[in-house]
């Protein structure tokens, strides 16, 4: 991973972590870009370099989470509902922040 990609990854990770913290404190629709960036320690200009607004950020974060979840369960093997729920629970705990 080159320096630019590494920096972008760290920025996005900081924003995701800050969003997870803020969403525990208040409803998602009340979180502002300014508040998110302050919590993450990221400049607003950097946020807008990657995203158009808070909704796009949320949608991309959600897509990434579902993509990672799908990767973990796309083995093609039949699974019982209990195994799926155990896997989802494990995935959720590992990605809680």
Protein described:
The chain has 97 residues and is mainly alpha-helical. The chain is 74% helix and 0% strand. It is globular. The two termini are 23 Å apart. The mean pLDDT is 84.
With helices defined by DSSP (H or I, 4 residues minimum), what is the helix count? Answer: 5
Q: Please tell me the overall pLDDT.
A: 84
Largest sheet: none
Please tally the β strands and state the result: 0
Question: Runs with pLDDT <50, length 5+?
Answer: none
The proportion of residues in beta strands is under 5%
Structural class from helices and strands?
A: mainly alpha
- The topology string of helices and strands comes to HHHHH
Helical content class: over 70%
Rg from alpha-carbon coordinates: 16 Å
Overall shape: it is globular
Distance between the termini: 23 Å
SSE inventory with pairings:
Elements (H helix, E strand, L loop, with lengths): L2 H23 L7 H8 L3 H7 L3 H20 L7 H14 L3
Helix pairs in contact: 1-2
Short overview:
By secondary structure, this protein is mostly helical. The chain is 74% helix and 0% strand. The model has no long low-confidence stretch (mean pLDDT 84).
Relevant terms:
single chain, 97 residues, mainly alpha, 0% strand
């Amino acid at each position: 991973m080159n320096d630019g990609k590494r920096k972008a990854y760290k920025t996005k990770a900081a924003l995701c972590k800050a969003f997870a913290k803020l969403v525990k404190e208040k409803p998602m629709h009340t979180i502002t870009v300014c508040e998110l960036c302050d919590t993450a320690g990221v400049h607003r200009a950097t946020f807008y370099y990657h995203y158009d607004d808070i909704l796009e950020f949320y949608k991309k974060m959600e897509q990434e989470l579902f993509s990672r979840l799908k990767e973990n369960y796309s083995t093609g093997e039949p699974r019982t509902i209990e195994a799926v729920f155990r896997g989802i629970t494990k995935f959720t705990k590992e990605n809680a922040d």
